[in-house]
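Entry 14. Structure prediction run on the chain below.
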Amino acid sequence: MFENLIERLESSFKLIKGQGRITEVNISETLKEIRKALLDADVSYKIAKTFCDEVKQKALGQDVLKAVRPEQMMIKIVHDELALLMGSEASDINVKGNPGIVLVAGLQGSGKTTFSAKLALNCKSKRGMRTLLVAGDVYRPAAIDQLKVLGEQIGVEVYTEDGVKEPVSIAKNAVKKARNEGYSLVIIDTAGRLAIDKQMMDEISSIKSAVNPTETLFVVDAMTGQDAVETARAFNEVLDFDGVVLTKMDGDTRGGAALSIKAVVQKPIKFISAGEKMEALDVFHPKRIADRILGMGDVVSLVEKAQEQYDEEEARRLHKKMARNQFNLDDFYQQIQQIKKMGNIKDLASMLPGVGKAIKDVDIDNSSFKGVEAIILSMTPYERENPSVLNGSRRKRIAEGSGTSLVEVNRLLKQFEGTRKMMKNFSSNAMSQRVMRKKRR
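Output returned:
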């Protein structure tokens, strides 16, 4: 995400490095490179020029402190302007109502159906809402079946009407059902087209008028760049939607759509989606995205993802096992599953400051765990619980059973022992600190 832009901006700031102060002369080349970087990121010329003019005006008006280098001041100004360009603050969706109604619109192939399911899971797990998904795309082959499969996967009911080709009546009947049966939220997936046309616009407008949604979201493929922005403009003129959802962000190395849409349609980006997993939906935080673009990482989002997977009871159980040096390979396996639930490993690592650039060309994904998982699952329950019994013959059997080599099995067991020792030391130190605090009292 934003890979190319991150590199170009980093190079542009080097041009002012070593200067004693910011002047119109020494920032002109930097701003020129910043403008080129934005244009290469598929930001429109008008937005790129306005952005650079704002940065220049603020940079020349700054009194640079002696303790702050000019390039640091420029990075701060560019960071603040990037956040402002994308909307400054995160914007929540309105799901209040009896029931709350979210209408999902966009072109065909933008990811509306998958997003609808992701949003349903998000509202179910994080807001505790009883949600009804509505299959309003009656034209695309298998669209209804896709939503049914996703609904079953996340444990959310899907409302359909077999043989009915009237999306407006389907939406109205679904809302009526939700109201009568105590659902707190209705999410309506609608049909898209391969291009903007009057029929599609009239239909989605009719659905909006019929159900009066509390929130209308426009879903767009981030990889389409300026096309995404122009599509958003066209939809907004007809629908007057409340916010934008950018999908397929994991495939967008430029970032033009994220940087431009707010400025063009004056509607906030509310969610970004990266990956096929149902949990892969994030609230859009402009300041955090600006941090990532400038190579500062996004530790806050990383911590939030960890907290989402945090199980207090499981943590207490593990802590006791660590204290007794009973942490075993079953526990090790469960920890891997918790990490995988947080998302793509490379994306998570890139949220740490300075790490993104270091692992840019490194191929890391969740499939990297497959060998480790195969080795552990090839052990008997007794062996996983008692790793000390794993002698040479057992290890050879495990290697053959997992399709790996004896070297890989030995490496895993060595890593596991190292992890167990580290956890025991950590637990012992924590216990010692608690004892010391009690003595002081």
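The domain at 3-85 is CATH 1.20.120.140 (Four Helix Bundle (Hemerythrin (Met), subunit A)).
Filed with the rest of this week's runs.
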